[in-house]
Amino acid sequence: MQIILKTDIAGLGYKNDIVDVKPGYGRNYLIPQGYADMATASNKKQLAENLKQAAHKAEKIKKDAEELAAAIGETVIEIAMKTGESGKIFGRVTSIQISDALKTKGFEVDRKKIAVEDVKVVGTYKALLDLHKEVKHTLTVSVISEA
Fold it and tell me: What is the reported pTM?
């Protein structure tokens, strides 16, 4: 079954993408929740017209995402965590902490657009920033022991 996504859905696609899903997933979850529409001929035609009109706006959004990625560049974010004797951290590093650390450096990135690997000990890790469907940026996160 083909559907047109109304919002970005992790692992499935981005807004205005036409994707194939199993009929039950589409009819029982995506469409009733308002995340998608059926990909009928009229909906596809309407989508094409909307995309044509929004092309200029989309190009500006992509350009802004590229500028943000370039501005962040090789920035290293330091996050202080409570640790045990062996350097193992208590709790976990979350995307909210990374987003807040980026805000303090002057970069506005939504926490939902940050994917961080599982952090268990003090060290340096990578976080993936999904700024746009065509713009991804890798950020270095340094986890240090809180004094």
Answer: 0.64
